[in-house]
Amino acid sequence: MLLVFSIACVLLGNWQFERRAEARAEIARIDANYDAAPAPLSEELPRRDAFDEDAQKWRQLVVEGEYFGEPALARNRPGPQGVGSNLIQALRTSDGGVFFVDRGWVPVDGSAAEGDEFDASALPAPPDGPVSVVVRLRASEPAIPGRTTEGRTVASIELPELARMLGVAGEAYTGAYGMLVSEDPPGEHGVLPAKPERDEGPHLSYALQWYVFIVIAGIGVAYAARREYRGLNAGSAAVREQDRRIAERRRRRGPSDAEEEDALIDA
């Protein structure tokens, strides 16, 4: 039983070490990319279907072109006023591609915006005409099993699905999208996210706790085994010899403070 418990603790401890490694890698990406100078879109993403999460996440780039089409809403997103949606707008780039921009959080409940019934004119409007946009790169999100597209609302920012909705599947960037930083000329937008915290979390302490649990369990099992052995062999020569040695050590050490207090109380 101790072996099974120890294996489980080791697995859980290693899992916490892996979580810590992931958190530290994210901190390294933030430090390297978040405040770096923006790069041109064609330089940063030479292929529209490619994206290197480790090297490019949070990296800033400049996209020039024009917004077009109706916006999409990525529903069930937490924000400052509860659950709302992220506003996703397509931008036709100067080289003819289509790049998706997350223009911030809006307090629109995705379930209330299902179908084509929600009023797009009530949402923050992007600037008209040519625009230069600074964004931070994020990877295309995976599809959510059991969740489907409802009109102009999507369950995740899955770029191939957004491209299909807009009818630009062969032209769109499907590896990464951009979180809005700024626009020139400026337009309306939703609530933009704050800089992520540089916090690796309590994973190291949790990992060490699992290994401490193994030591505690081992001590407990050893103590219980010793008690059981002494109980089953109370009259044996080995147990009597152990008792004699314990009594001899106590005699040489003298009475403890607790024993002296007990003697005074008895007197």
Automatic annotation (TrEMBL):
Membrane topology, as annotated: Multi-pass membrane protein
Superkingdom assignment: Bacteria
Transmembrane segments: 208-225
Acidic residues bias (residue ranges): 257-267
One GO CC annotation: plasma membrane
Compartments where found: Cell membrane; Membrane
Keywords: Cell membrane, Membrane, Transmembrane, Transmembrane helix
UniProt-annotated stretches for the region Disordered: 240-267
Annotated family: Belongs to the SURF1 family.
Protein name (database record): SURF1-like protein
Protein's organism: Leucobacter massiliensis
